[in-house]
Design goal:
The chain is α/β, with parallel strands linked by helices and 264 residues long. It is built from ten helices and eight strands.
Length: 264
């Protein structure tokens, strides 16, 4: 059976963050994920995970100054110390929360020569981070993100992400394959799943409709086919629900979960 994790930074936003755990549990989710748990009291998150029997499947390392437009520190010139602090802090938090995976955002980069320098920094820093993750027994994830939604993001295609993981060669560094981003950038989702899942280099999946990023029950990507393919390929990991519910207001997320009930 496929395992779906509610992304609490995207779902149940009609509720305060800490109340979203109970809402997800009521709707039948056994796992959750979120962007930045360091912004909330750790003890409160621990209590909700424990009391509700939820597993925290994934969170993001601190990406720098999000409000100022930063989207990760890994490739930014002059930010190595900040990057290393974000990794050590995230690994410590993962240990406290019992979370086995941390997504590390690459950062924004200019094109051309500056972009080549950014990639070199990115690969060097991720190699260092992978060593720290191995010692902490936490898996770090890198995610290709489409540059329509996030212009200038350094990492946008699957092959480049998998090539980096293969070159670094640590089993605690894997790819987070978001099918929404993958469809926008590359398409041909079935073939890409068949190419990458058997390598063992995919550590997490995420889903949303294309193009509106709503519930995975409309749009150009036919998720019943995708889910059947994941079952055929023997996917055992979590599938993160990182989408924007189409219905706003009280109960919006729950009202849009017909796709999940139908599949289960």
């Amino acid at each position: 059976m496929l395992k779906f994790a509610a992304n609490l930074s995207w779902l149940y936003t009609e509720l305060p963050f800490l109340d979203r755990f109970a809402a997800a549990a009521r709707d039948g989710f056994k796992g959750v994920e979120c962007l930045f748990p360091h912004e909330h009291p750790t003890a409160e998150i621990q209590a909700r995970l424990r009391d509700l029997g939820l597993e925290l499947a994934l969170f993001n390392a601190a990406p720098g100054n999000w409000a100022a437009g930063e989207r990760g520190l890994a490739c930014l010139d002059g930010r190595e110390a900040d990057f290393q602090h974000s990794i050590t802090s995230a690994l410590a938090l993962a240990g406290t929360l019992g979370c086995p995976r941390v997504h590390v955002m690459a950062g924004l980069s200019e094109a051309g020569i500056a972009g080549h320098g950014a990639w070199s920094r990115y690969e060097h820093r991720m190699a260092w981070a992978a060593k720290q993750a191995q010692a902490a027994n936490v898996t770090l994830l890198i995610e290709p993100i489409n540059t329509r939604d996030m212009p200038g993001y350094l990492l946008s295609d699957q092959a480049r992400a998998h090539g980096l993981v293969e070159r670094i060669g640590f089993k605690h560094l894997k790819v987070q394959m978001d099918l929404y981003h993958c469809q926008i950038v590359e398409g041909d989702i079935t073939t890409r799943l068949r190419r990458w899942l058997p390598t063992g280099q995919v550590g997490h999946l995420q889903i949303a409709a294309v193009p509106d990023r709503g519930e995975p029950d409309q749009g150009e990507l036919h998720y019943p086919h995708v889910f059947a393919e994941l079952r055929r390929l023997g996917w055992q990991g979590w599938i993160g629900c990182e989408y924007k519910p189409r219905k706003a207001g009280d109960g919006g997320t729950t009202a849009g979960l017909g796709w999940l009930s139908a599949w289960q």
